[in-house]
Amino acid sequence: MEAAPLANLADFRPSWHSSAACAGQLDVMFGQFTYRAARELCAGCDYVPECRADADIAEAGVAVLYLFGIVAGENPDERVARRAVEALEAVPVAVSA
Q1: Per residue in 4-25, pLDDT tens?
Q2: Measuring CA to CA, which of 29, 51, 60, 78 is 20 to 30 A from 86?
Q3: How many CB atoms lie within 10 A of CB 46?
Q4: Is the pLDDT of residue 44 over 60?
């Protein structure tokens, strides 16, 4: 029995990926010392909310040590800090009467 061919990863990307400002520029987004150029791309992109949501899902449970690159205008430390604030804000606060 012949094995099924491997799927093309592009088949699993959201449709907006090809229209994002960073499309085809992985070297800028994930290269060394390119944060400024990457942030400039993100600043002019229409898909920052979608990109941020994708990163939040993809990076869930990943140790900060293994995160890299600029995603939705944020570096790894900024993404971790934002998620921590969002998690704290989601905790209900008991109010005594």
Answers
A1: 665 565 567 788 989 999 999 9
A2: 29
A3: 11
A4: yes
Query: Which tokens is 7 given?
Result: 């799927």
Burial 53-87 (b: 16+ CB within 10 A, else e): ebbeeebeeeeeeebebbbbbbbbeebbeeeeeee
Please list the residues that pair with 71 across neighbouring strands: 74
What's the pTM?
A: 0.76
Evaluate whether 54 touches 14 at the Cβ level (below 8 Å): yes
Query: Which of 32, 15, 28, 14 lies closest to 73, judged by CA?
Result: 28
Instruction: Evaluate whether 28 touches 37 at the Cβ level (below 8 Å).
Output: yes
List the beta strands (DSSP E) in the chain: none
Question: Confidence band (pLDDT; 50, 70, 90) for 61?
Answer: confident
